[in-house]
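Quick question, first post here. What does this chain look like in 3D?
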Amino acid sequence: MDGPGQGNQGHNDIAGLMHNIGRVARSAGRALAKTSTEDKNKALRAAAASIRANAETIKAENAKDMAAARAKNLTPALMDRLELNDPRIVSMAKGLEEIAALEDPVGQVIAEWTRPNGLVIQRVRTPLGVIGIIYESRPNVTADAGGLCLKAGNACILRGGSESFHSSQAILKCLQDGLRAANIPLFAIQMVPTTDRAAVGEMLTMTKYIDVIVPRGGQSLVDRVMRDSRVPTFQHLTGLCHTYIHAKADPAKARRIVLNAKMRRTGICGATETLLVDEDVAARVLPPILDDLAKAGCELRGDAGVQKLDARVKAANTEDWDTEYLDAILSVKTVKGIDEALAHIVTHGSEHTEAIITEDREAAERFMDGLNSAIVMHNASTQFADGGEFGMGAEIGIATGKMHARGPVGVEQLTTFKYKVRGDGQIRS
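> Answer (accepted):
Ran it through. Tokens below.
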């Protein structure tokens, strides 16, 4: 049996459609909470096999989305986020297999103790219930989110962006092939079958059916969810990530890391958007880095000191320090030392991911301890801000809030806990 509703709906039908989706998701979530690890893993592996077997179909559906995106003149960075090629399809399948290989968090005993009266108390992981994921142009999120929610025992309602509608529907069919193989209700993973934005508004009010909302997309999407949602949310704010080259950085290491941190994939939230450099070493360290970036097609915007080092650097304005470009653009600023670097990041950053490049371990620890970003790094590219790279199999997003989940949101972060208390006739006096 397939999920409720197919195709675009009339506006007046959206509320009924969404509440029906929520109702069956709640039922599926109760069933999933009792599903064995073996069955969940069977579903994940079967879904991975279906993605591999249907790679040509997925690419054909993705081609429809890519053609529509070109007609809308989407930026190259957004086109890159949207595209599904053979390596990315293989990566989706591998991600599901890696999730299957992870330890099942459901039922894990986090802590256990015995009270003086003999009561034995356990804190035990349990699914959140039903998770709503609202995302934009990256269709691979369909597989990542569906797989992670399944492993953590949660039903999920996916609402992808209109740009990736055909691609995401093709991936959803593969995920449901996996559910069929393990005899798990298909309603465990559903996708909103309409691009009508009113569906998002309904999701944000469905407190009876949805336990948490995860927004994954641009600032306007996140702002809307944070403003309008009555359902608890995992905050996923902008990825205004910084890389700081300390005075004691290894120049060759810095050159390699910065180019990767900015240009490997410019459209992901872990891409470096601002480069900070100690002014004492800028003239020695920066020129080859700027040359590498410019030759790779990166537009450079910098302060007066940086402009003196390379004629291709445009003057940065005040907005540049607060901009997540998600494109081949980098703002570069010289600072007087680690204190000024920290102050700049605290003032302009989004508490996502920051990196320091230095051979001074004391400075590295000072930098990492001095920031409250979800991820802080030493001598590594910010592009490692990813659940798969953290060994989590995949991620739903990078949470930048301070409640419940921070950093990559994987299977463990998609659980809560309950207390199991065992007694032998005790009563309270």
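The chain has a mean pLDDT of 92.
The chain has two domains: 11-234+409-421, 241-384.
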